[in-house]
C-alpha cells in the first residue's frame, strides 16, 4: 500500500484535528470514537496511523519547502530576487508579525502532528492480537511503533522550539503542549526546561525501545535517526558531552561517512542516493509524491524552451565565491548562469536541488530533502568537541575538508589558534549545510547577528536589511495571533504587538 493511500485513512483518525486547525487552535482535540474504533483494531491499522504521522514531512509549510528554505532566506545564505513574487517577503525583510502566514502555517502543521502522535501513543497499547497473529510479534510491533511516534513527536516539538523559543533552559517561554489527547484548548506555555525535558524523554525512551528496527532504512525512524536528532538537540542546548556521545552512535558505524568524489556527491543531491551520507529523508515511493518536494522549482525554475533559470531565491555572490575553486561543493551547490529576468550579468543560482531524474515526468525539480546527514552529525561533534577537546575538533575539521576539497593541506588546520578554529568550524558548518535549513538557527544559538547589504540590481533594495543584531526580537517567531485568540493563556513572545 502506498503512502498516499494510507494518508487518506489517517485523515479519519485526525478529523477533529483538521477542523481545529482551520480554526487555528492548538489542535489537541481527541479523535472521534468511530475513528479510534476503525483505526486501532489491528496492528495493520496502527501502521496506517503511524504513516499518517510521517505524512507531516510532506507539508509545504514544513520540510516540503518552508523549513528547508526559510532558515537560509531569513539569514544571509539566500537573497530574495528582485523579480520574485510576494512569497516570504515579510520573513526575508525581518518584518514578520503575528499575522504573517509562514509563522501561522508552520504552527498549524506542527501541532496537528503532535496531536496525531498523542492519539497514537494513547491508543496503540489497546490493540488486540487477532486470530492467526503471533502475540509476541504484535507486542514487539507495538513497542517499536511507539518508539517511532515518540521520536517523531520529539522532532516536531524541537522544530517548534527552534522557531518560537530561546535556546535557554532558564527562559520561561517554552511551548504550550500536552502529551495526551484532551478537549481543553487553553494551555499556558511551559518553560523551555520543561519543553526540553519532554523532548529528551521522548528520545531516550524511543532509543531504548527501537532496537534494530529499520536499521538500514533512510525513510523510517531508526536508532540512527534518534541519535542524529539527539546530537542536534544536545548541541543546541550546549550539552557538549551528550551531543558527542549521540554523534558517536553514528560515526563509529563503518557504513556511514563522507562522499569524497564529485560523482558521488552529485548523486547525493541530484539522485537522493547515498548509503554513506543520508541518515533520513522523507519517502518518495511514487512519482506523484515528488510534487511535495519541488524545492528546485523555486531555486532554479528553468524555462523549458530555453533552459534558462528564473529563480525566486539566489545565493549571495560573496558566499558562493567563499568556496574554494577546488571544493567539490562549489560546482554542485551553485550554478553560474544568466537569468531570464536579469540580463546584465550571470548570477549564482542555487543548484543543490536540481531535480531527481527519477521524477522527471513531474517536471518540478523535486528532490527529497535530507533531514539528517552524516556531515551534520560530524559537524555537531566537531563543534561540541571544541569545548572539550580541541584536538578532536581539529581532526574532524580536517576529515571534512579532505573529503570535500581534493588535495587539501591539513597543516592549515593545525596552525589555527582557538578563536580561528571556532570561527572556521562555524564557517564550515555554514558551507556544508547551506540551503538545508540550518543557518538561521545556528546564528541564533551562537548569539550572532549578520549583515545583508544590497549587492546588485537582482536584489530589491528593501531586501537589503542591513545589520540584524543578535538581540533583535524577531529571532523568535511570533506566536500566531489566531492561536492566541483561541488560547488566551498562551503568552506572546516579547516585542510583538499582539
Automatic annotation (TrEMBL):
Residues 1-21 form the signal peptide. Keywords: Cell outer membrane, Membrane, Signal. Its main location: membrane. Residues 339-496 form the RagB/SusD domain. It is found in: Cell outer membrane. InterPro entries: SusD-like_N, SusD_RagB_dom, TPR-like_helical_dom_sf. One of its GO terms (cellular component) is cell outer membrane. Residues 66-235 form the SusD-like N-terminal domain. Belongs to the SusD family. This is RagB/SusD family nutrient uptake outer membrane protein. It comes from Chitinophaga flava.
Amino acid at each position: 500500500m502506498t503512502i498516499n493511500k494510507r494518508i487518506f485513512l489517517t485523515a479519519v483518525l485526525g478529523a477533529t484535528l483538521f477542523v481545529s486547525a482551520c480554526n487555528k487552535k492548538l489542535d489537541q482535540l481527541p479523535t472521534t470514537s468511530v475513528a479510534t474504533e476503525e483505526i486501532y483494531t489491528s496492528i495493520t491499522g496502527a501502521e496506517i496511523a503511524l504513516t499518517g504521522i510521517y505524512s507531516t514531512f510532506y507539508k509545504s509549510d514544513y520540510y516540503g519547502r518552508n523549513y528547508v528554505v526559510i532558515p537560509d532566506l531569513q539569514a544571509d545564505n539566500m537573497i530574495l530576487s528582485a523579480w520574485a513574487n510576494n512569497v516570504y517577503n515579510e520573513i526575508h525583510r525581518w518584518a514578520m508579525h503575528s499575522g504573517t502566514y509562514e509563522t501561522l502555517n508552520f504552527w498549524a502543521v506542527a501541532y496537528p502532528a503532535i496531536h496525531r502522535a498523542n492519539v497514537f501513543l494513547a491508543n496503540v497499547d489497546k490493540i488486540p492480537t487477532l486470530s492467526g497473529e503471533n502475540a509476541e510479534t504484535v507486542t514487539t510491533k507495538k513497542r517499536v511503533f511507539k518508539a517511532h511516534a515518540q521520536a517523531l513527536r520529539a522532532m516536531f516539538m524541537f522544530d517548534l522550539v527552534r522557531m518560537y523559543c530561546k535556546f535557554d533552559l532558564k527562559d520561561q517561554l517554552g511551548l504550550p503542549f500536552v502529551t495526551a489527547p484532551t478537549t481543553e484548548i487553553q494551555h499556558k506555555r511551559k518553560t523551555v526546561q520543561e519543553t526540553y525535558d519532554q523532548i529528551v524523554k521522548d528520545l531516550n525512551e524511543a532509543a531504548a525501545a527501537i532496537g534494530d528496527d529499520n536499521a538500514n532504512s533512510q525513510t523510517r525512524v531508526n536508532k540512527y535517526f534518534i541519535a542524529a536528532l539527539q546530537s542536534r538537540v544536545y548541541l543546541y542546548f550546549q550539552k557538549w558531552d551528550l551531543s558527542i556521545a549521540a554523534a558517536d552512535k553514528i560515526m563509529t558505524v563503518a557504513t556511514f561517512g563522507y562522499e569524497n568524489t564529485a560523482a558521488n556527491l552529485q548523486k547525493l543531491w541530484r539522485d537522493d542516493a547515498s548509503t554513506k551520507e543520508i541518515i533520513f529523508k522523507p519517502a518518495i515511493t511514487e512519482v506523484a509524491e515528488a510534487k511535495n518536494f519541488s524545492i528546485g522549482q523555486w531555486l532554479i525554475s528553468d524555462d523549458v524552451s530555453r533552459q534558462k533559470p528564473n529563480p525566486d531565491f539566489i545565493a549571495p555572490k560573496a558566499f558562493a565565491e567563499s568556496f574554494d575553486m577546488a571544493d567539490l561543493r562549489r560546482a554542485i551547490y551553485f550554478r553560474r548562469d544568466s537569468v531570464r529576468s536579469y540580463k546584465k550579468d550571470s548570477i549564482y543560482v542555487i543548484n543543490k536541488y536540481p531535480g531527481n531524474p527519477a521524477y522527471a515526468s513531474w517536471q518540478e525539480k523535486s528532490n527529497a530533502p535530507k533531514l539528517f546527514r552524516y556531515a551534520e552529525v560530524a559537524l555537531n561533534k566537531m563543534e561540541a568537541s571544541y569545548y572539550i577537546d580541541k584536538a578532536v575538533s581539529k581532526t574532524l575539521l580536517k576529515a571534512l575538508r579532505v573529503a570535500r576539497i581534493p588535495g587539501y593541506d591539513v597543516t592549515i588546520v593545525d596552525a589555527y589558534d582557538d578563536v580561528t578554529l571556532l570561527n572556521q568550524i562555524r564557517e564550515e558548518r555554514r558551507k556544508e549545510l547551506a540551503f538545508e535549513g540550518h543557518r538561521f538557527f545556528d546564528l541564533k544559538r551562537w548569539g550572532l547577528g549578520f549583515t545583508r547589504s544590497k549587492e546588485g540590481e537582482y536584489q530589491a533594495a528593501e531586501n537589503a536589511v542591513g545589520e540584524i543584531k543578535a538581540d533583535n526580537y524577531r529571532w523568535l517567531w511570533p506566536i500566531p495571533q489566531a492561536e492566541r485568540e483561541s488560547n488566551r493563556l498562551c503568552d506572546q513572545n516579547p516585542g510583538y504587538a499582539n
